[in-house]
Amino acid sequence: xxxxxxxxxxxxxxxSNPANRFERLIVEFxxxxxxxxxxxxxxxxxxxxxxxxxxxxxxxxxxxxxRNSSPDIGFEWSINVYRGCEHGCAYxxxxxxxxxxxxxxxxxxxxxxxxxxxxxELLRKALQRPSWKPSALAMSGVTDCYQPxxxxxxxxxxxxxxxxxxxxxxxxxxxxxxxxxxxxLLAALAHHRLVRxxxxxxxxxxxxxxxxxxxxxxxxxxxxxxxxxxGAGVPVMVNIAPIIPGLNxxxxxRIVEAAAEAGAHSAGWGMLRLPGMVKDVFLEWxxxxxxxxxxxxxxxIREVRGGRLNDATFGRRMTGAGIFSEQVRALFxxxxxxxxxxxxxxxxxxxxxxRPPSDPAxxxxxxxx
Length: 369
What we know:
Mean pLDDT: 89
Low-confidence stretches: 1-7, 40-50, 364-369
Oligomer: single chain
Helix content: 25-40%
Largest sheet: 7 strands, mixed
Strand content: 5-15%
Number of strands: 10
Order of helices and strands: HEEEEHEHEHHEHEHHEHEHHH
């Protein structure tokens, strides 16, 4: 796919805007404009000058719940308050979803964010329907519900307030320490077995994290979020994902140990996935940030993906196959057994669900206020 390479994309995971597979017109960055954006007030180059300012757009979605039909994903319904993700992880499997909006999955994905401002109201409307049967919701199924703009908009927090009101179970996955802001709501939900939280930790190397996941919380801050939530009685899993063969696989034992020390209840893992144009973004990232390891990394990826860079087959797309994948699995199992993280997360309770009265004055929430 054609794209224009940039000098250096400050604070972004992608290096360009790969062409949208559904669009005939391609928007490319002007290299001269890039150089100007990266120049200081006197024209000298400075990495502190922003290249792209994040833009936020109203998403006029008429519904908030998305149904999952993939057999290897452990939830049926998810909530995506945001589309696109400013975290900008170079490997993010969700990038191709932005193409359905007419954007690129490259820089557009992390700098043009769709915001569902009516998400809490849409969620309340959905749960009020007589046809709705409570089922553990996932926040989020695609992009991070605690990405930076959530600190200002608090849409995820307001959705959690709705779920608390309905006594509805939810599972959260994030890379952002911001989840600890909502420890009050999460602790109240956890008291009634209505929530579990997953923190994804890819590496403990803060330098690598800044390059690979430029706008996420640092590994140290994510572990601190684990401590805060676990200390409040919230079940927390640490997900070691993605494991990138030849880049961060050697960190698996240390991440498991750190997760246990922080109070995590369980741990999981997942292999790197490169669907669609994610491959182009990740290969550009390797060229820019770690060219010396590129050949080895790609060789290992092909080893776990049947000779290709991606295998979307259900049942093995999450973990890969082959000898290297089995070695990772065995190491993970040994480490989690050693540190007491081999057990499953607690089951969520769907029996407490109720539809509160439409008049807030009539609402009583014993034990959940």
